[in-house]
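Board notes (copied after class):
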Amino acid sequence: MADLVSAIKKIVRDYIDNENLSDLSYATYTGAGLKIDGKPVEVPLDMIDIPLHLQTITGKLTCDLTSGFEIKAKCDGKDVEVESIKLTDVPVTIQTGLSPGARVAVVQKKGANKYSIIDEVTG
């Protein structure tokens, strides 16, 4: 009877291991992918979902600032007071993205090699 119970436990354990259930893991972002702790192969970026708040955002900025601020600057040694600023289609990059070497918490899609970054972590 003990052999039957052991055999059933082994079958269940093997089944669960085979299912590759989702689990929280930790990884290091390399810039080209993720190095998952305890796994020998780096996961490429095309297999990783990165939340928007961890991505670098690029775009064009257009604004017209004409009131409510005062800027004092020096130009050729003279004090200059700026009354308005107008920008049209100025390329900008908002660098909130992950830097290589950043530690992240990730979850793996059940039964697949697809990962989603949850957030950046410390340590």
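Comment from the instructor: Residues 1-54+99-123 form one domain. The chain has one helix and ten strands.
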